[in-house]
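Final report, closing paragraph on structural work. Over the funding period we assembled a curated collection of sequence-structure pairs, and we close with a single example.
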Amino acid sequence: MRKLLFFALLILTGASVGCKTRSAIPAPPSPTPPPTAFTINAGSAPRIAVIKATVSASSVADRSYAQSLSSRIAQWIIQNGVPVKTLSDEDVIAGKLRGFSVALLAYSPHPTPALLSALQRHLKAGGKLIVFYGSDPTLAALMDVRLDRYRQTPSLAPWSGWTFIADVPADVPRQIEQFSANIFTVLPAHPKSRIIAYWKTAAGRAPESPPAWLKTPGGFWMTHILQDGDGAAKSQMLLALCGELDPLVWRQAAEAALRQARSLAHHSRNAETLRALDTLEHAASAGKYPEVVREGKRLQEALLIGLACAQRPRRPEFRGVWDHSGTGLYPGDWNRTAKILADSGFQAIFPYCGSPAEALYATPLLPPADAFQKYGDQLDQALRAGHPNGLEVHAWVICWRMETAPAATRARLRRLGRLQVSDTGTPLDWLCPSHPENHSLMRTQIRDIAQRYPVDGIHLDYIRYKDSHHCFCAGCRARFESSIGHSIRHWPADVRSGPLQDRYSAWRCEQINSLVAEVAQDLKGIRKDLKLSAAVWGYYPLCIKSIGQDWGAWLRLGDLDFACPMNYTADAGQFTRWVKTQTALPGASGKIMAGLGVTAMESRLSPAQTIEQIQILRHTGASGFLLFDLNSTLEREILPYLRMGITAP
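Its predicted structure, as stored:
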């Protein structure tokens, strides 16, 4: 295996993949492995479950936070080729954890007795748990640890990660970076429970450092949640922990590493590559799965560099990035973010600026978001950094959603009939699009940005209903009845699935269409060069009835300067079908900037998959693309390969 890295370096010198060739190559197919290739017998059924807190999270904010944590952890495990199933608390209570060997509690602040009983059954059946940031004494007892205390970060030397000590699972990274402001420590409560990692500061681990990780008879326990950042190391750590608890997970990862190496090797079928693959095959057949994963990744890296260097940039081509945080990669330092994007060949940044509930820019119309209070006017800073670096700045505005508004504000709006209601009468913390005051609020907010900031465009998001079950509030009923000229006897049945279904569906669409048209008119009246774009659902025209989003009409009528369909899938075939349909729409020529879900919950793209999807959209007639989302994973794991060739400045 020690020869493998040498082979990989030789591969990079080959004329077929060298960085000097820059020859365009087709999207990588999935080659059929040779008859002697190692094949897995473990199957592709998930053995790992990530539990998403629902009943164990007491507030909407906690549930949203728990969902983001569980999604991130699931994606980190999936990156290793290991299948994962996400289960809710209700799923676990209903017995759906049966058959899974390992379950991860990403964040369960208040586990209920029913959930704890289900977890106990899982442990008694031989299953294992990985718990993050628990403070429940019953859960601690189940895992053979005892609760210690809540601790806040030392002010002069904050915790910056943890260091694993001796006797840890195979291939766990020695150190991992993470800035944690608070932890809840636990201590061993069983002869076989032991501390395996300690928190460290920038100066390193001190003798009094608190424990970060414990191994117990029931699995593993971390004294904080697993935050974003240092993604490659955390992905490797999760594989090592899960593989320690269930060795079959290592076999699944080994098969995936071989499959990915074979796919990339399609572009470099030289003797060195074939010998490297053969070495991997023999190691896999001998059951050396961690070694196969480790060396397979090294081979993939070498092949990936060759693939990336062989690409050519296309001009003209629109290249943008969504920034969901609104603060750039380094909060407080937009210049650094702008330079990274410009050096990577991108020309536009779409920073989140606000919603009807909050603003990351200076305005008397809305309450300031936390990011504004901490770092100042983010839109102004993005513009001051973006324009000198040649980046367009498009203000990303979320429409209708009010979840982040104070509870008192939401309660007041509900009393005024301005929030949505489902077809079963359940309230939703979104503004109702048909309410005149809500319509006016969105237009005023967007005009305010366009008039006071030199943005290059306005980017609308959530310009739709949540789903087909909204909105059926009393205001919608009155306004729809007024539009058709008569009352409705059976509400909402007559419009939900009865004789007025089609008319109501069209009326819902019109509430959204009219706002887009009026915003477009407003912007042209402010500055002729202002661009209006929107993040839209990829599966058009199904989204017309389901969410009231007829973005094909916005293009056809000239209301949008361009659309950004969120084509979040790792399936190349599905991505191709979506883009072909989108670029063929009337009025879509030159106006489709496809969204790639590089780190979206629905998809997690490798560098090779990202390159492949860019090739596909070029071949199918799209004029550019946006990547979701601007974060450390995109910066460290994707952009370096793109700027080697396909987006080279």
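Confidence is low (pLDDT under 50) at residues 1-42. The two ends are 37 Å apart (CA to CA). We thank the funder for supporting this effort.
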